[in-house]
Amino acid sequence: MELQQYADQFRKEGLGVAVITYDSVEILTNFDKRQNITIPTLADPKSEIIRAFGILNTHVPADHMAYGVPFPGTFIVDQNGVVKSKYFEDSYRDRVSAPTILLREFGSAAGTRETAVRTNHLEMKYHSTRDTVRPNLRFTLVADFHLQPKMHVYAPSVKGYIPIRFEIEPSPYFTAHETEYPPSEDLYLAAINETVAVFQGSYQVRQDITMLGNDVLEPVLKGDHEIKIRGRLRYQACDDKICYLPQTVPLEWTLQLDPLDRQRVPEAIQHKVPASGGG
Amino acid sequence: MAFSLAIAFLAIFLWMPSAAAQAPQDDWAFRPPTSTGPAVGRRIPAFRAPDQNGRMQDFNSIKGPQGAALYFMRSADW
């Protein structure tokens, strides 16, 4: 369970953590012992909490083993129990990784393998919030920019200029979400008497990636377990006097792909498929 | 008789494409949430349940000084 690894980072931000499932206490005891999970995992075998939250997965047929599961998701709540934000995905298999939530909520950095690039106009350091990923995990590629003094690049919204573009090469193994750029600044350019949307100084660009499912990733899991994400950064930098030639900087992340934990708890305490069957 | 047979064939014909479009896994697995619970700015319901050690927990026992991250997950079994 990924959350165990990041529980201390949530605590450092003043947040307690808990997991809630439709499992019995016996299942959770068994699983948590096997996985060395010490964060509170709460048993809601009748899905009472899940229903009270209004997130019972109503697509599951009532005679199916999975009946009672929630739509998986995460709530960040304040000390009064008021929802500050929440993270839900379209597929019940997909989950937003903890460091992506920590990044969104607190701007905290994670990931260890940082790559630094320097051009004549800017410095860029980029990393992934996860060095190790699993099928169906949503994580974030992060690029921190620092432009030279007086230098600017054009924001994606500009017309008639070459805007900054962070591009990820399509892959059969993952989906790239929309790139998230920070709010731009309006800069008045006296030379051309125009105000344009730009980025200056330091700013961060984020790109979420969701790994596809186990079936699609099988060749990688049977092979070298390596996922390469390639992309490029395109921009044209200008200072207060001139605009420089447009640049394309290649980007690459190498991640390790781990399999999902598919081990079930001992048969006696497993969730049962109803005798009538249910698909 | 022939008419009802025709209806039956028509029914099969109409039913086929949607069945063919289904993935081999359960259909429910691919359907997005119909509800994601309390909206941002709303209060979560009170809850109380035993943890993996059989100890009763509620929001007060879980929360830190700034609140809590509550993860609803599928299952620790499958």
What's the quick description here?
Chain A is built from 5 helices and 18 strands. By secondary structure, chain A is of the alpha+beta class.
Describe this structure in words.
The complex is a heterodimer of chains A (279) and B (78). By secondary structure, chain A is of the alpha+beta class. Chain A has five helices and 18 strands. The radius of gyration of chain A is 23 Å and the shape is elongated. The mean pLDDT of chain A is 92. Residues 9-24 of chain B have low confidence and may be disordered. Chain B has a two-stranded antiparallel ribbon. The termini of chain B are far apart. The chains are: A alpha+beta (279), B alpha+beta (78). Chains A and B meet through helix 1, strand 1, helix 2, strand 2 and helix 3 of A and helix 2 and strand 3 of B.
Main sheet: strand order of chain B:
1-2
Question: Ends of chain B: how far apart?
Answer: 48 Å
Oligomeric organization of the protein chains: heterodimer
Say how many strands of chain B there are.
3
Q: What structural class is derived from the secondary structure elements of chain B?
A: alpha+beta
End-to-end Cα distance of chain A, whole Å, is 27 Å
- Pattern of helices and strands of chain B: HEEHE
Helix content of chain B: 25-40%
Q: Radius of gyration of chain B from the CA trace?
A: 23 Å
Q: Give the rounded overall mean pLDDT of chain A.
A: 92
What kind of sheet is the major sheet of chain A? 6 strands, mixed
Note the beta-strand portion of chain A.
Answer: 35-45%
Structural class of chain A: alpha+beta
Shape annotation of chain B: flat
Shape summary of chain A:
elongated
Low-confidence stretches of chain B: 9-24
